[in-house]
Amino acid sequence: MNSDTAAIVVTYNRKELLAECIEHLQKQTYKADIIVIDNMSTDGTPEMLKPLVDEDKIIYHSTGANLGGAGGFFEGIKLAYKLGYEYFWLMDDDSMPTPDALEQLKEAGDKLQGNFGFLSSRVVWTDGSICLMNVPKESLYKKVDNFDDPVVKIKMGTFVSFFTKREVVEEVGLPIKEFFIWGDDVEYSQRISRSYPCYLINTSRVVHKTKNNYGSNIATDDFSRIKRYELAYRNEVFLYREAGAKGFFYQTARLCLHVFRVIAKAKDHKSERLHTISAGTKAGFKFHPEIKRVQNEM
Fold it and tell me: Which residue spans adopt a coiled-coil conformation according to this UniProt entry (predicted)?
């Protein structure tokens, strides 16, 4: 260990983006040890990383299977905890932190006297505008609109620059790996914020290098991606189900809106898109994943 902080990057078949992410991490003004969690990439990622591993510049861990982002972060936090790190900085492989991103998070944590559950960076798109898929939430129902104040209290953040602590993980457990993709960060951050104050740190900035800057939309997304939406609806039903009656009615309204969007705006495969919403929603009522404790996973 050369640092008290582990930068945990989950990757799958995006070696060019991963290489760029690692380059940005290596340029941080506050140094972190880099842990790459590889969801069994088949694009030459292990071969690309081998020189960095041999030179002890990164820690590489292959999951042995594609566990999705949720499973990758589950494994990454577990490994970083086992190795003794005090802080865990989570991100996807298309996250490009600016040079002082981590330093700003650490300074904010110090000013808060360590009284936080997680800190999120301000996430922007490649043109500098706010990245719409990574806007933190003040509640399950309201997104943050304050990007001016240095520190803003939030309830939910995303795994594109998500900074948390060893003691928090010990108390609240690990991310739910069964989510696979979509919603695992919402669930985890919400779980943490029930016990700790959590904040958006606007002075810490990360570029999310996605192809476009808009949120997911089952009505307009390419049909080749539609199957994964079944997991999104399953996970959302679980999240809003946990929120009680208000969550139930809110999610019902959301589902009605999404059905309307598909009927009104989808240019192809309307029946398959509607079936995906239905199948995911039904699965959500049967979805009862267990929260794993890091102490029990050692």
Answer: none
CB 39 within 8 A of CB 63: yes
| 95-97 and 137-139 strand pairing | unpaired
Q: Token pair 């779980």 is at which residue?
A: 191
Distances (CA, A) of 204 to 78, 129, 212, 284, 298: 25, 14, 22, 35, 32
By residue count, the chain amounts to: 298
**In the CATH hierarchy, which fold is given to the domain comprising 5-213?**
Spore Coat Polysaccharide Biosynthesis Protein SpsA; Chain A (3.90.550)
Dist CA 205 CA 203 (whole Å) = 6
The alpha-helical segments, DSSP class H, found in the chain are: 15-26, 45-54, 68-83, 101-111, 166-172, 184-193, 229-242, 245-265, 270-285
Task: Give the tens place of pLDDT for each residue, 176-202.
Answer: 999 999 999 999 999 999 999 999 999
Q: What mean pLDDT is reported for the chain? A: 96
| Six-digit token string for 158 | 């995303």
Report whether pLDDT(53) > 90: yes
The 3-state DSSP composition of the chain as helix, strand, coil percent (nearest 5) reads: 45, 20, 35
Contacts (Cβ under 8 Å, ≥6 apart) of 18:
9, 11, 36, 45, 48, 49, 93
Q: What is the helix (H) or strand (E) element at residue 199, kind and residue range? A: strand 198-208
